[in-house]
Amino acid sequence: MKKDIHPKYYNKAKVQCACGANFSVGSTKELIDVEICSACHPLYTGKEKVIDSMGRVEKYRKRLAKKSR
Q: What contacts 2, CB < 8 A, 6 or more positions away?
């Protein structure tokens, strides 16, 4: 690698989530603020729920039923 062209690399950069979780990663930034992380994301916590406010699933099922006739 060429010298003096790369940013400083922090092996233990701190990550702070809005939920209060803190952990370390490697980064070119010393402090990283994030809104969502694996500690609070619904996909990782198992609290995922599907919201179908427009009834799109029912519309799809109706169209599919019409095609299969």
A: none
Query: CA–CA distance from 42 to each of 6, 45, 46 (Å)?
Result: 36, 5, 6
Structure confidence by residue, pLDDT tens digits, 14-57: 999 999 999 999 999 999 999 989 888 877 777 766 666 677 88
Domains and CATH numbers, the chain: 10-68 (4.10.80.400)
DSSP letter at 9? -
Q: Give the span between the Cα atoms of 33 and 59, in whole angstroms.
A: 40
pTM: 0.57
**Cα 29 from Cα 10, distance rounded (Å):** 7
